[in-house]
Amino acid sequence: MHTNADQIEAEAQTEPAAMTFSDLGLSQPVLKALKDIGYETPSAIQAATIPTLLGGRDVVGMAQTGTGKTAAFALPIIDRLDLSQKTPQALVLAPTRELALQVCEAFEKYAGHLKDVHVLPVYGGQGYGVQLSALRRGVHIVVGTPGRIIDHLEKGTLDLSGLQYLVLDEADEMLKMGFAEDVETILAETPDTKQVALFSATMPATIRRMSQQYLHDPEEITVKSKTQTSANISQRYLITAWQQKMDALTRILEVENFDGMIVFGRTRSITEEIAEKLRARGYSAAAINGDIAQPQREKTVNQLKSGKLDILVATDVAARGLDVERVSHVVNYDIPTDAESYVHRIGRTGRAGRSGDAISFVTPRERGLVKMIERATRQELTEIPLPSVDEVNVTRLSRFDDRITAALGEAERIEAFRDIVAHYVRNHDVPEADVAAALAVVAQGDTPLLLEADPEPAPRRERTERTDRGDRPAFGDRPERGERRTPREGFATYRINVGKRQRVEPRQIVGALANEGGLRRDDFGAIKIMPDFSLVELPANLPAGALDRLADTRISGQLIELRPDSGRPQRRKDATGGSYRDNRGYGDRSESRGSYRDSGSRGSYGDDRPARKPRHKRSDG
């Protein structure tokens, strides 16, 4: 591996200001796609990596998440595809299904002006049928997690003999999650002539050894992250269900003292929907996105600058280069999936030394994106609760007081209305305070001044003697040997077919079930690990969909076969004289996969969760 003279230090601060993507040697179809997306100048890692990969040389990239590394490897691959070849030409390995899907979507956007480029995400939790049929039809690019790629290689359903490009994305994360052996197995199954790009935020000894063994004369490219956010921007987030986002936004608008605001949505259609609903609630709002013509965009932005418009709802592309001094707040209605977009968005406020506020809406399943942004920006986001009805009402009353105070300053108009009120009091024998209240009703109209209080939460049931024996146990806490613990209220005990013999740990169980079943940390109770199986407390009303998604889940290479626990402890040996199997009336299922690697070598988090069917050539929203 080259160092010193051959090593490139790609500093964000020193990247050439005039450089464009056309300077990097990319073809016209790729450049047209980048123009459609709104990309103008390459990031530091893109400027350093794209020409190197186009030149055919292997690359080791030291780059944090959010520096633009996906485009750094995806654009050269798209540029050099042979569309007549039906077996996979490029394989990208990613540690999690979420990252695999993001990379797939990026490939599809960059291939927007190429005909019939087929990109396939491959990860566990999704049925094999979708993946097998796509592979039979022909796929140019495969993006997958190591575990499912290994499965396809073992089954003979993935042909890597024609592979020309291999990318290891976030290699250090793959090692942390126990995929080192899987990655090396996959590397050994690929042609020696392939070009390899390895990206990692850190360079531990294992990755250094791997790069020396499997890469040929690589160029090492180090990128210092430019995903730093301004210190004068307050960064907050609140957890809300997707269906409650509009109500959350309305309450934020009620309690925040903002001047101008930009609300970011992920797609064109959602920006129009948000703007329409805000206008219906009495706010001055308009949307800009890729469908808005340039003259209309300029007119809308000028209205925001002049104060005729208070809220601009925009996509990332539409807001590029937007600089409006009066923007005091940015709201991420949809939190971005990469740190660079996050930094770009919140940078629309807090400009030229002014203070600003950024608030992000995060659904329960998107909590990991907050951690990713915090790691990349090295700044902590503060979680805030949804503003309460009392907070909203206090704000409304304060504003109502301000309107009264302002009206009292108009002496001539006050004098005229004083005579009118006095006339009404004399003729109708009504106290002046009642007349003032009636006038307030007239001024307010049909919209209530104050919100009704949120309904009181249902009273908690008294704890029974059985459950009142102490606090809820922490993860992995379990009763003494031989004691069967009664699940806490609302929970049931489930059985999985891995235990001490597989060297399973509570964190592996939590990671696998959470990732594949869409469960949260709060959905787990006590975990008891037995020699041949484990007992896990989960919600009693676990939806059937979650059970279906977990049907093919593996931990340490073994199917877990999640099912409710019967509570009957009888066991028998299987017919082959092997390890004990539980005899609780569920029947046995044969293990379809051999033990090609040690137990515990494959981390279960992130490899495999169910998801939507792959969509190709998706346009940017």
UniProtKB/TrEMBL annotation:
EC number: 3.6.4.13
Localization per record: Cytoplasm
Superkingdom of this protein's organism: Bacteria
Residue intervals of the DEAD-box RNA helicase Q domain: 19-47
Main location: cytoplasm
Record field: transmembrane: none
Residue ranges constituting the Helicase C-terminal domain according to the UniProt record: 248-392
Chain ranges of the Helicase ATP-binding domain: 50-221
Catalytic activities: ATP + H2O = ADP + phosphate + H(+)
Annotated stretches, region: Disordered: 450-491, 561-621
Short sequence motif named Q motif, residue ranges: 19-47
GO cellular component, one term: cytosol
GO terms of biological process kind: cellular response to cold; ribosomal large subunit assembly; RNA catabolic process
Chain intervals with Basic and acidic residues compositional bias: 457-488, 562-611
HAMAP family documented for this protein: DEAD_helicase_DeaD
Family: Belongs to the DEAD box helicase family. DeaD/CsdA subfamily.
Record-given protein name: ATP-dependent RNA helicase DeaD
Gene: deaD_1
